Amino acid sequence: MTTRQPKKRMGAKDIAAVLRERIDTGQIERQLPPTRVLVEEFGTSPETLRQAMGILRAEGRVTSHQGKGVFVRRVQPIEFAMHKFERGRRRDDVESGIDDWKAAILELGRVPSQDTPKVSVERAPAAIAAELGVKPGTFVVARRRIRRVDDEPFQLADSWFPTEVAFDTPLMDEEDVTMPGGILANIKNKKYAQVRKVDKLRAWTLTADQAIRLGLGTGSTVPVLRHVRVGYNAGEMAVRCMVTIAPGDLNTLVYEIED
Fold it and tell me: Residues with Cβ < 8 Å from 227, sequence gap 6 or more?
């Protein structure tokens, strides 16, 4: 006589795998079924289902709206031409408040926006200090922004400036400031205008703070790119270090290399 083995209960990873496939194949297009429905379908507990949803949120596949439910996160990625950004003839429009970044997104047929910049004076982390050529712990000005496309967070753009560059300039203002050629080309008799830029690109693991700012939640497993652009003035002084954190599922950074 054969004894029937009890059916193995699905764990959070198993449930996440099933829901992931349904999302990828279009079986679930917009909103996931309510918790009670999924608990009954998978014969699981609300806690296990919550863990499964946490896995999908960490992957950037779903997003939760308080009191409304869990929704599929479908965002169309962009191809951002880094070789054009802040190079040559910039596309800043003072009257409309369109800076070079917003202009680039508009050219893609998308809608750009930026959250109000957060400005602080703080001690430079070792990595930023190295890029700016100052000692770790030196006070610098940090200017942090969240860049959005079609109202979705697409990039974090955080810039650090030596205090001698930023103090007593619009860089200290917590508001969008648009100037032809950028702020650095319009302050302190153009002493700190950028004439050369160096880009560095690497894979990155989100910190908890970065994940929250991007609306992904802590523990996110979304692959991201970390782009560092250091600008130098005519005297070869590093006048700005901008660090852009770009989720890999939303951003393709394009460089056109001339022969």
Answer: 82, 199, 200, 201, 243, 244, 246, 253
CA torsion angle for 34, 39, 45, 47 (degrees, to 10)?
-30
**Beta strands 78-81; 251-254: pairing state:** parallel
What is the C-alpha separation between 259 and 243, in angstroms, rounded?
28
pTM of model > 0.85: no
Q: Which tokens go with 97?
A: 């408040």
- The answer to whether residues 96 and 103 touch, using CB atoms and an 8 Å cutoff, is no
Buried b (16+ CB within 10 A) or exposed e, 220-234: bebebbbbbbbbbbe
pLDDT < 50 positions in the chain: none
182 close to 159: Cβ distance less than 8 angstroms: no
Contact 238, 215 (CB under 8 A): no
Tokens of 211: 């994940």
pLDDT per residue over 56-84, tens digit each? Answer: 888 888 887 778 889 898 888 999 999 88
pLDDT tens digit string along 157-195?
999 999 999 999 999 999 988 898 899 999 999 999 999
Instruction: Enter the tokens of residue 207.
Output: 């910190």
Q: Tokens for 123?
A: 């001690």
End-to-end CA distance of the chain: 77
Q: Look up residue 32 and give its DSSP letter.
A: P
Pick from 118, 212, 207, 224: nearest CA to 171: 118
Q: Would you state the pLDDT for residue 96?
A: 85
